[in-house]
UniProtKB/TrEMBL annotation:
Keyword presence, Membrane: yes
Classification of source organism: Bacteria, Bacillati, Actinomycetota, Actinomycetes, Kitasatosporales
Region: Disordered, residue numbers: 1-21
Pfam families reported for this sequence: DUF3311 (PF11755)
InterPro entries per UniProt: DUF3311
Protein name (Swiss-Prot/TrEMBL): DUF3311 domain-containing protein
Swiss-Prot/TrEMBL keywords: Membrane, Transmembrane, Transmembrane helix
Amino acid sequence: MSEPPEHPPGRTAAQASADGHKPLLTVGNPVLTVPLIVAGACLAIPFVAMLWVDSYARLTPALIGIPFFYWYQMLWVLVSTLLTVVAYVIVRRREETVRRERHAGGEEE
């Protein structure tokens, strides 16, 4: 299996560094961190919950006359929205931290 390129596609390493592009792979900046794992889990949880149909394929308990099957799925629309917002905030904070570290280290974007 070959390694991914260290420069943007269609450009040589010399062209990329001359234009100020940063390498895609960096040693001091791990790609997978705990906050990013949490963000991924926030995005994966709704999929697992909705794909596990046996957990909600029933009529009771009803909520204001709406069968469980339906209100449970509508509840997950709201929960999914909240989890997506949490994942978005986590990723944006991570990106901002990396940007600040690069700027403090004397690198330009």
